[in-house]
# Entry
Amino acid sequence: MLREGLLEGVEDEFGIKFTQRTIAINVRSQISSIQKNFDTLYERTIMETQNLHDRCPKMVLGEVYMIAVPEYNDREFDKKAIKFKSVKPDLVEKYIKSFQAVNKRQTVEKHFYQYESVCLLIVDFRKKQPKIYSSSSELKRNGFLPETSSVSMDGLNWDSFVPNLLKVYRERFGKAIF
# Structure
């Protein structure tokens, strides 16, 4: 039985010992209104991990977050038209900085708002086969990041996501678990 928080009084079938030894991954996407909804979406991203780590500090959490760049023009949806808004490189930079800030939680005693691993998928859907960007240099070449930007996609790409989660899990719970 949970004794505090929003779920106070709810029966916990598995218990904290089991729950804490899980890997949980949030999957989200935003294909339009990425500027307008940034604050709300980012607050949700932080609070979900804050709430889970507050209850289970050792739990290994991941976040896969996809944004469309350029974003779809949502005003055209009613017309059944596929159009895109112009890209604001500063907005792409803001997303990268924000997700770097919640990536790679190292300790179980603090930083409950951080994830052990984050994958930020920045995808251009204008092409027949969508383009997934995995480096800052690619984003700069295509005008999606300011040339002067120093942000890095290192540690935010798909290739590092699962290995990072598994590494942290093994460090916390041992190798024999797999």
